[in-house]
Amino acid sequence: MSAITIPQRPTRNFLGEEFELTGWEQLQPFYENLKNRSINSVEELRRWFLDKSELESYLSENFAWRYIRMTCDTGSEQYQQEFNDFVENVQPYLSAYGNELDKKALESPFLGELKDSGFDIALRSMKKAIEIFREENIPIQTQIQTEQAKYGAIVGAMTVNIDGEEVTLQKASDYLQSTDRALRELVWNKLQVRRFESKDQLDELLNTLRDLRHQMATNAGFANFRDYMFAALGRFDYTPQDCFNFHESVAEAVVPMLNDMSAERKKALQLDSLRPWDFKVDPQNLPPLKPFSSGEELLEKTITCFTQLDPELGNYLRVMKAMGHLDLESRKGKAPGGYNYPLEEIGVPFIFMNATSNLRDLVTLLHEGGHAVHNFVTRDLLLNSFKNTPAEVAELASMSMELLTMDYWDVFFDNEKDLRRAKIQHLESIIETLPWVATIDKFQHWLYENPTHNIEERQTTWLKIYEQFSDSLTDWSSFEEFKKYIWQKQLHIYEVPFYYIEYGMAQLGAIGVWRNYKQNPKQGLQGYLNALKLGYTAPISAIYSAANIPFDFSKEYITELMNFVKAELEELKQ
After folding, report:
1. Coil, strand, or helix at residue 219?
2. In contact, 142 and 91? CB cutoff 8 Å
3. What is the pLDDT of residues 131-180, one digit of tens each?
4. 409: exposed, middle or buried (Cβ count in 10 Å: 0-12, 13-18, 19+)
5. Residues linked to residue 340 through DSSP beta bridges, in sequence order
6. If you placed Cys at 114, which of 119, 197, 297, 305 could pair as Cys (CB 3.0 to 4.6 Å)?
């Protein structure tokens, strides 16, 4: 095992070592310097890009810590205020100056002499950013960020009472794995009732966000926010029509597998009617898997798992542990969900999640750990923008890690039977993931293609889309009202709109990476790392090619990959 070296923050040549942000007044001179600096050679242009990258990295990390602290403690007024202060009093200036600096870079006569791989990708993103920038959108963007932050506060405050104990929704959800069906039904009802209590608040929040987002899109000359976001997200490699093709491919190739799985579950559990609270319990009615009992144990076992895959990968997590860059356990007042937040100065990210003790938590840390690996292997790329990969690539890193580590999950399970159960559950969850991704993505297209819709129309459309991508066996009778609001639990709709189809594309890529690894572990892992090390210095299709997989979401390719997963499942079930 190699020794841990704690990374040091790079020297701040431009900002100076002692710089500490207290307000915009300190920052403005640096932006003025970049804006007005004379550039008379390719060497001076390169230095200008490096100084700009240093400034962006500092601000990105400063903002990251504000977000991290706020989500770790949603009840803290101080953390909320520090976050809002950046959003309201710093970020608006960054948009305007960012546009000016993009223009300055693109007007330089020395651009063609920059030979480093990645500048062409960065420059096309700059061009697109200039195209969509509008001064009047700056205050709207500030308002949107403030509104988006409300979602975490609303959901983070949700608790239910189970056996006299007030618990988070995440922790309560563990009871849905219980073999006691009456208990599952009771807890499922409590969860839905609690979410239902906030439905109007969350509906109004989405209305506000929808209207602000549509205004921003029309200000920039787009017909709707969907088209604006395709430009803003830099989707150079595919179109909305490709997304629609993905939806149809999943409906045809994957949804029938959902029906087969549900029929198998219903038969195994010997049920007359398959209800919404019957999907998390083991189909053989075995107690839920418990791969760990504390956040500390989860981390240590994950480090071991990563080390067995590749010692260097285990070291990355050890560095994060030594630096205190993890907050893993669920608790009251913590925002929902999980994330890996890049810290772009130090190059060591922060992982946040809400672990209780279940298999999903184990997979979440493997997933976020994949993102962390991505941050480590790109930390030495020349510019900040070279490290900021599009989500289709970022999620390839994380979803592949879930599968690449499966050969080492014996770290978490003492016996072969539990290990097989864990693998089966995870592979079946992949089959469930693709239709859910299609559901959320198709719903978001509709939301913004129809910006004047009312709440009743939204409910009707949601149900229509939901039913297209869900199994036909689940009995929702008496609970139809809850079904109308399932989408409200998906934080992406509120906080990162249109960031969801990427999970589907990356899930397909991850299955391809795993298939390569199964055929040749050394080459498969190396291909994965080769792709990650590119950061965003090549188009998405070229990055996928580096991993020896296609960037393809046709019905034929999805069917091919699903047949591979099906074969792996059948082998595990023998």
Report:
1. helix
2. yes
3. 999 999 999 999 999 999 999 889 988 999 998 999 889 889 989 999 99
4. buried
5. 351
6. 119
